[in-house]
Amino acid sequence: MLKFKKLSILFVLMLAINTFFSSFVFAENTDKKSIVALGDSITYGWNLQDRSQAFPYLIGTDEYTVLKNISAPGWKTTDLLAGMSTAENMDAIKNADLITLDIGNNDLLSLPEVKVILDQLKANPPVLPTQDQINAATAALMNAISKLPANLGAVITTVKNVNPDAPIILYNLYNPFGTNAGPLHDLGEKVIPAVNSQVINPLAQTFGAHVANAYSAFDGRQAELILPGDIHPNTAGHQVLAGLANDILKTLAPQDFDITLTPSTTEPAEKVTVTVSTTANEVASMKWLPGEKTTADFEGTGTEIKNNQFEVTENGKYTVYVMDRNEREKVKIIDINNIKQAPAPDFSLDLTASPTEETEGPVTIKVSTTAEEVLEMKWLAGEKTVDDFANDGTNITDNQFDVTENGKYTVYVLDGRGVQKVKVIEITNIKSNSDDPSNGNPGDDGTNNPGDNPGDTGNDNSTDNPGNGGSDNQTDTSGDNGSDHPASDSADKSSKSPASATDNSLPDTATSMYNYAALGLALLLAGIVAMKVQQVRRKRENI
User: Fold this and answer.
1) pLDDT (tens digit, 9 = 90+) per residue, 370-399?
2) HEC string of 493-509?
């Protein structure tokens, strides 16, 4: 019982370790792309000391790993078609990132007429074929070639139906017989090039497969790349086969590409056709947008380019976007500046002021324009030009603004088509401070002002008192030494009212200066009275 428990614990431990390492290997493999290899004894690695030296395991070792090697010695195209049809193999093909296919050799070498010759060569000592045997083998091989396209095509069709995205590397046939093989080399040269040109190349073109040219790689190097007395590659031969696939993979890897944009003309024109050319192997998308854009700007937008051309009718920068089949994206910008522009429609600009009669201000200047779209509307004091508004000006809201001083004012408008215009208006109806009656007597003609010399007798009007020598106003007192009363003067004698000779009130035209003079006189009299009162008090105190 104890022994059973120990075995159970050991089994569980081994299962856990196995699960751990299986998960580790799986995780490691998922970091690389997968290869499914389809073929015959060459793909299988026949006669190699280690099958891991077969060419599928040497392809893209940094990026790829073999997920499944579906091959066997002696397989013909019909055998491969049956062998790959299992659920397990179909699942592997479906999940492959790359398919290699090297089949068809046994379709030819298994022919009885050819097999007789091969057996004779393996004999000890080897027996060379007769001319009749070679002729019979040649006829049989040519007949087999006619059947090969259908069988090999069925294999490729099955792969494409299961996995249409994985690229296929299709190996053509090499001549296993070197020049020292004499008649066999000649036989191979009659058959092998015919198979490659009549079967392999057309099928590759039909299905979009990539041909690995094993024929050229082995031609003249059979002694170096093929096992002695055999038709299978040695380790060096498998390395050559893997190298052919690696070269193809370099062309399949995402490669940078160029975009060239060519305008139909550089002379002035109403429209320009831009032609797009690119070195991308296969274009998945080609679009354009106005302006200077990045690849991110084309996500979900852009105008599709048909026939590699598009037309523009306005000057400016245009960006072309190209994405290749590997989803590599690139943009190119072209600047079009030779399109003749139609003159921008003019617009009117009118300014009106309110009110128009004399006012103490402010005056509202209203702006009206026929511009369809107003981008800017500003004003400046003074007579200005468009250039003055480049970095200056007060924005106008509600199409009007107020001013409080007379002068010229300029309004600037920029419309949606880039047309700029200015208009000047002059405001003259705002009353200035100099018109205020408090700044002077509007009726004074400059002859006698309230502050004139009291002794002036040359400008008195005819209403003066005749008893004072013609120099004094009749309202003067006898003790004023002939000085004029401030309210007696007038700008014009003829404008003097007859009643003014006896009227002691100030005229209606008197200004505040008369009031100030009267107030000063009153204060002076009050001071004199106060001084007299003080003198009387002192005399009484002395008595």
Assistant:
1) 998 999 999 999 999 999 999 999 999 999
2) HHHCCHHHHCCCCCCCC
